[in-house]
Write a structure and sequence with these properties.
heterodimer, A: 162 residues, alpha+beta, STM4215-like, 8-stranded mixed sheet, two-stranded antiparallel sheet, 2 helices, 10 strands, 21% helix, elongated, B: 325 residues, mainly beta, 7-stranded antiparallel sheet, 6-stranded antiparallel β-barrel, 6% helix, globular
């Protein structure tokens, strides 16, 4: 299942780098596309603004198939306070931009499963695929607007896969 | 395992799901594949005895007895004195979770066709047009290796699909190697097409790799070692139809493993399809759906040699070692 999670993240990261190269973040002294996996970073008191944070929550497995079908819930959290230039008055527009980016990052709803523990990464046999996004309500906290989007990611467990 | 000091009374079987196995029937001689639970009742579910083919876990398994009973009433007021069994009949319905050549054919009910890779300029047809020419096998083929000339092998890439069977040369009646896949009424009905048997054959496989000596298959051919008269054609998939005059007939075995070590087996020596192609969807995360193949069968009789009775199904119960019987 880790290969599926890695594939999902790298797919979205690659798409974001193409879609909006200016959405970057600086984390651990490295500037990179503005998307991260929460469980793979140090805990943060406050979420990074203007970046996407992936959190893996639910997990189900259908074991009564020729290959186990894992069904994992990924929540994509993002928040913005708008831009300083506009004194944050554009925070609604900034959130809408991120909403639209989520839609574009997720489409097409599948990707070739890759094993990123090897260098170079190795293509596996099956596809990782996911549901359409389920947008949660907009949450306002002082000057911040945030939202969580739920996506269900599916992957068949291949032979010998951890 | 030692016998518990105090055995429990008989308990209700508690199963999670049903696993299905199918085996060919000799249609010409009406000889099914019989499963003997006294010999193989405890087989490992992932390794059924030959020639049973594992079709995995199924869902919505429902079996119905539709036998009819009559009564002989005498006296006034009338009182039933005797019962008679007027008909013996049973049906089975289920859904196959996985799509494969066999599960699709069983669910389709009628002839199940292989989509032969088309020849250039073929006239369009719903079940596929005239295919590219078949190639010959050479000596040394096995159930998992197709020996052929280097120039022929070069035409098949790793990952491609093949149908391996004899040419149609005017046979009538049941055709197909290992499994009777269709019943030909006349050569004219199938256009005297030399590819017809390969079009319906169950002797299909995926190519794992191709070399100058032949094709290594990723799965064994159901008919085993190919005969010298068999030829190979590339296929791209499968197609079935609503309609057709042929009925698939297979021997079937369904297994339910209980949680206390008990096992229930349902053996239908002769099941014939009794419904056309249909599917059932299960929502995963809308709009994603898992699509299962719906299948329905009528059970046909065999004679139990122990007492000469005509029966259509055998139900076997292998009790848990922890209970009284």
């Amino acid at each position: 299942m880790q290969n599926a999670k890695d594939t999902f993240y790298i797919t979205l990261r690659s798409r974001l780098a193409t879609l909006n190269p200016s959405r970057t973040m600086s984390l651990r002294a490295v500037t990179r596309p503005g998307i991260l996996v929460s469980e793979a970073e140090a805990p943060m008191a406050q979420p990074l603004l203007d970046a996407f944070a992936l959190s893996w929550t639910g997990l189900q497995a259908d074991v009564q198939l020729p290959a186990i079908l894992a069904q994992m819930t990924c929540e994509i959290h993002y928040a913005t306070a708008g831009t300083e230039t506009n004194a944050g008055l554009d925070r609604g527009r900034a959130l809408e931009e991120m909403d639209y980016e989520v839609l574009q990052l997720l489409y097409p709803y599948s990707a070739q499963k890759m094993n990123y523990t090897q260098n170079p990464a190795v293509a596996m046999e099956t596809m990782v695929f996911w549901s359409e996004p389920e947008f949660g309500p907009l949450v306002t906290l002082r000057d911040r607007l945030s939202r969580a989007v739920k996506v269900t990611v599916f992957a068949f467990q291949e032979q010998g896969e951890q | 395992m030692s016998t518990p000091a105090t055995l429990l009374p008989a308990l209700p079987p508690t199963g999670r799901s049903v696993r299905a196995y199918f085996a060919p029937v000799d249609r010409i001689h009406r000889v099914p594949t019989l499963f003997d639970p006294s010999v193989n009742g405890r087989f490992a579910t992932s390794a059924p005895p030959a020639p049973w083919i594992d079709l995995g876990w199924i869902e919505d398994f429902t079996r119905k007895s539709t036998s009819k009973f009559g009564e002989l009433v005498t006296g006034s007021p009338g009182t039933t004195q005797f019962q008679v069994r007027e008909t013996v009949d049973a049906t089975v319905s289920l859904r196959f979770k996985a799509w494969s050549k066999l599960s699709m054919a069983l669910a389709a009910g009628s002839q199940h066709m292989n989509l032969i890779v088309p020849a250039a300029g073929g006239a369009p047809n719903g079940s596929g047009c005239k295919g590219v020419p078949a190639v010959n096998l050479t000596a040394g083929s096995t159930a998992t290796f197709l020996a052929m000339a280097p120039s022929d092998a070069a035409g098949f890439a790793a990952g491609s699909l093949v149908s391996v069977d004899v040419d149609y040369v005017g046979q009538t009646g049941f055709v197909g190697s290992a499994v009777y896949a269709a019943c030909v009424s006349s050569a004219g009905a199938v256009n005297n097409d030399p590819d017809y048997i390969r079009r319906v054959s169950f002797n299909v496989a995926r190519v794992a790799s191709s070399s100058s000596t032949g094709l290594q298959l990723a799965q064994p051919l159901i008919a085993g070692v190919p005969s010298a008269t068999m030829r190979v054609q590339p296929i791209s998939g499968f197609v079935d139809r609503e309609g057709g005059s042929f009925f698939q007939e297979w021997s079937a075995l369904f297994v339910v493993d209980g949680q206390q070590g008990e096992r229930v087996l349902y053996h239908y020596p002769r099941l014939q399809s009794m419904a056309g192609p249909a599917e059932a969807s299960t929502a995963l995360a809308p709009p994603l759906e898992r699509i299962a193949l719906s299948a329905m069968f009528r059970a046909l009789p065999v004679t139990d040699v122990n007492d000469g009775e005509q029966v259509v199904c055998f139900r076997t119960f292998l009790p848990s070692p922890a209970t009284l019987i």
